[in-house]
Design a protein that fits this description.
Radius of gyration: 15 Å
Largest sheet: 3 strands, mixed
Structural class: alpha+beta
Strand content: 15-25%
Order of helices and strands: HEEHEHHEHHEH
Distance between the termini: 29 Å
Number of strands: 5
Shape: globular
């Protein structure tokens, strides 16, 4: 348990407890294709120059036109170069759609950070790039991202337009 200290603390508690060399996160209300992890692992084996790999996403639930366009844009970004150069536009991929070496997340990045000034996802992508990590994406939509009116993307203060 993270003791109510935030998303970063919860993710760090998982990282600290993990014994596997690769880490994959998933929000409790999202959906994953049964072959997601095996296909991501195969992509990492096929691309030894990649440190991590994400997948395309599909959205479901209360989906707005703007969020649909955002996901279409995210799904077009696949190479490490595309992902990292677009991190200044918006979050180029859902971090939770991928798998990453524990050593990258824990030893190099020193875990996740909850910052009051901006979303944890943006912070993670910025620090992955600063660490020189190469993360690619498979185009297959293997992760289902639930949309609802109460999610932090729409309601948390650090996700407001003035913070981005």
């Amino acid at each position: 348990s993270s003791g109510g200290r935030g998303q970063g603390a919860a993710q760090n508690a998982c990282l600290e407890a993990a014994t596997a060399p690769l880490i994959g996160l998933m929000d409790a209300d999202d959906r994953g294709d049964p072959e997601r992890f095996s296909r991501l692992l195969a992509a990492l084996k096929d691309r030894p120059d990649w440190d991590g790999v994400c997948c395309g996403i599909r959205i479901f639930g209360t989906v707005s036109e703007g969020m649909s366009r955002y996901v279409l844009w995210q799904n077009t970004l696949q190479t490490p170069e595309e992902l990292f150069s677009n991190r200044f536009v918006e979050i180029p991929a859902l971090h939770q759609s991928g798998i990453y070496p524990k050593s990258l997340l824990w030893d190099k990045l020193h875990g996740y950070r909850d910052l009051p000034g901006w979303p944890i996802d943006i912070d993670t992508w910025m620090r992955l790039a600063e660490a020189g990590a190469r993360v690619g994406k498979v185009p297959d939509q293997l992760y289902g991202w639930r949309q609802h009116v109460l999610q932090s993307t729409r309601n948390h203060g650090r996700c407001g337009i003035d913070k981005l």
